[in-house]
Amino acid sequence: MRSPVSMPKLSRRSRILVIVGAILLLLLLSGSRLLSTYVDWLWFGEVGRRDVFGTVLFTRIALFLAVGAFVGGVLALCLWLAYRNRPVFAPVSGPDDPVARYRSAITARIKLVGIGLPVIAGVVAGFTAQTNWQMAQLFMNSTPFGQTDPEFGLDIGFYAFDLPFYQFLMNWGFIAIAVGFVGSAIVAYLFGGIRLAGRGGELTDATKVQLAVLAGSFVLLKAVAYFFDRYALLFSQRNENFTGASATDLDAVLPARLILMCIAVICAAAFFVGAVRKNLQWPAIATALMVVSSVLLGALWPAALEQFSVRPNANVAEAPSIENNIEATRAAYGIDDVNFVDYEGTSELSSEDLRDDTSTIPNVRLLDPSVLTDTFTQLQQRRNFYGFPDQLDVDRYTVDGETQDYIVALREMNTEGLAENQGTWINRHLVYTHGNGFVAAPANEVNSALADAGGQGGYPNFTFSDVSNNGEGDIPVDQPRTYFGELVTDYAIVGADNPDDEAAYREYDTDNERYLYTGSGGVSIGNWFNRLAFAAYHAERNILFNEAIGSNSKIIYNRNPRDRVADVAPFLTVDSDPYPAVVDGRITWIVDAYTTLDNYPYSERTPLAEATNDSASQAPGVPRPPDREISYIRNSVKATVDAYDGTVTLYEVDENDPVLDAWRGAFPDVIEPMDQISDELRAHFRYPEDLFKVQRDLISRYHVDDPSEFYSNVGFWNVPSDPTTGDDPGDANTPQPPYYILAEDPESGDTAFQLTSAMVFLNRQFLSAFMSVNSDPERYGEITVLTLPEDSQTQGPQQVQTQFVSSSEVSTELNLLRQQATDVQFGNLLTLPVGGGLLYVEPVYIERVNQESSFPQLARVLVSFEGRVGYAATLSEALDQVFGTGAGESATDPTGEGVEGDLPGGGDGTQEPEGQEQGTPPEDGGDEDQSGDEADAGTPGDLDAAVSEMNDALERVRAAQQSGDFADLGQAYEDLSTAIERYESLASGEGGG
Fold first, then answer.
1. Between vectors from CA 877 to CA 873 and to CA 879, what angle results, nearest 5°?
2. What sign has the CA pseudo-torsion 172, 166, 213, 216?
3. Hey, which bits of 386-540 come out as E strands?
4. In this predicted model, what pLDDT tens digit does every residue of 740-784 receive, in sequence order?
5. Within its chain, how far is the Cα of 702 from the centroid?
6. pLDDT category of residue 902 using cuts at 50, 70 and 90
7. What one-character DSSP code corresponds to residue 539?
């Protein structure tokens, strides 16, 4: 019989080449990772948070090494024992026995296989385990909640911090034993410890012992898992109506797991006895017992109890669990202290009542931040490389002693907006480096250049603080240049050795001087090592060879404020909507951040992305929260990012959050205490939308106290769908977003900045409640819910919108506009509690279709109260139509006194030609495309005349329709079309002025 042929051995030269190739391959695979890590290390040094980088890196490495060594070590030990106890003579079935060839190949490289396989297994396990660094840190820094669960009496901290870590250890124990068992079986088979010939095969005594010990260890670990699985029942989702241990879990699954735990211990002992006696009969019996008992106790018994006992009496059987679920959910999501107030929703308000209102009516928001991006862009962009985000923000400011809510935005550098001939590397990274200024408009005002004429349109009353006015607008700033924002995507290289060196001084500024960055932000690339690192990281040789980059140059990257906060605090969940604010004279991004858990006992599990989804979050460019489930959330941290130098600061705003306490233990110096928050910064804190949406979704169900009503869904509410979206408003099915408003606080009666939302009854469109949360410092976070009677017939948003669009006057005028190639956009439909009733206000915008330079302009205001509809050019007139003459006197009148920036350009209502604004960019920056931005906008007088022509034409259209004179009707349509074209031409700057 021929001996099996072994694999050919490599020569010394071939082995060296293989080793060198392996090293090069390893460098190629890990080089980019190492480079990325170095770039991250430099960035964390820039923001002064290398302690975060070091803690995370150390934890990841520790988990990688610990788990990798454990899994690889168990596999190595099992392989060594199986090989060491192999039979002296391995069976060979014939000259072509494939097992013999494999055995010969392994024997020739026994060290390589014996070390290589465990190393590979350990590396794979380590890479997988290191992603759980947050769980490990929470375990090491766990803190008590001071609350216990209703079943086992354990502190909630055990479930939040300890149990996940214990389950982590058990899972890797199972994996290590399973990998060791498979490895032992394979080695035993290759070297004769397991022989498949004959009836049932044959195992050597050594193999029997090794496999029995491994199997017994697995079963013993399963007994431990059964013990801890009892606690995991408090996260059960067996019942689709609530999260937590159901009646079946408590009455069947819980005792079953205790019994199975005892059976597992007995079976493990049977395996160990079989190992000692070198007999597999006891292990075989134990295995059969485990399988049968798992099926009977773990599956059939709970199913039978569920089917024949629990479901027929579910409303009674599940009542204790539902009570626990309601209590835990309210505590976990911070909705256990909601102030519910009975509210009739109907009222007979007089015009005198509205005139006396000093909180809500004067502050009704007419500007919709989700509609006006194009308006801001056309009127305040200044240059094509500036831009505004798709979703503007709402904040409040006190100007000249009067507090108003404002639509706010930064005029950011938008590198994606560069024209084709501006897109050189120098322009993108050395010339166009920063934005220019803070732009705001009072949310309750429009400019009277159009509104006073009663016409179709209204501009925001802009105020801005930028380079052109040295930051001295109505909301003054010390440094109007912004290097960090939501639109910028490219890195910027700033700084120079010699400010007089033309070539090294490229940054474009809108004043007549070139600008040299003096902020602390950015990473130095003055040394060749860093330049080489960033050149390799960005695959850009210009970083190495550009002569403008000197020893004082810095590279600014990771410029989105949301991303900066997420990187500085990777243990927090960051809100999807950062917003800019002027705080102590600095333009500052404010970013909300949350602590979250996914294992709070009995608390409802909420899909974060789904709960925060609405018509606003679906807009292009709006970031979304992570797509994962949570069962606990707190807005415990407010973060700020300086728009000029990128400084990131985290502030604690909830001193009673045990999860934040745990993270402070892991990162002790990262979060500033609450007393470090300045009064001016606190005055600009808003209650975050994402948290509000999650709480709104839960309050729609968890306002119900009675378990039976909860189980049958009696009294549940819905978030209304947004009636203003889609081609046919009223048919939309995406949730309506919450709205920031300045109005009377339902609880205190004071004027307060609030986040609000209407609620409707389950699967009905009648209004059920009005939810608001106060954002003012004195009452921040106080949630008030006005609950309407269960038999209320108060119209909800969808019904009001249907009433609006079906009104004869409204539908006639809007149809006329649409026939003249004018797009009609409905703004946000605000629900406002006023005098015991509910007032609905909705702005209507018009925009010329198929015109690149067109933009939405306020045309009309819709008002509804108690079924009465008002439709006029101003809020005051619309209120008069609903409540009687004089009712709208307290509403903010359109202004026309030359408010700063009320028309494109400066404070006098004039506009400097866009293509000639205060000089041109330096070399390589003067080739910008200025098409469409060069002409002046129309003057107020020209626009008034155009609006009057439109009004006259509309009146003649109505008259001709009533008289049936088709000749006059055709002429009136023609005159209306001409007037609209003239108006659009003037408003967009195409007609001069």
1. 120
2. negative
3. 386-387, 393-399, 402-410, 412-413, 435-436, 438-442, 463-465, 481-482, 492-494, 523-524
4. 999 998 878 889 999 999 999 998 999 999 999 999 999 999 999
5. 24
6. very low
7. T
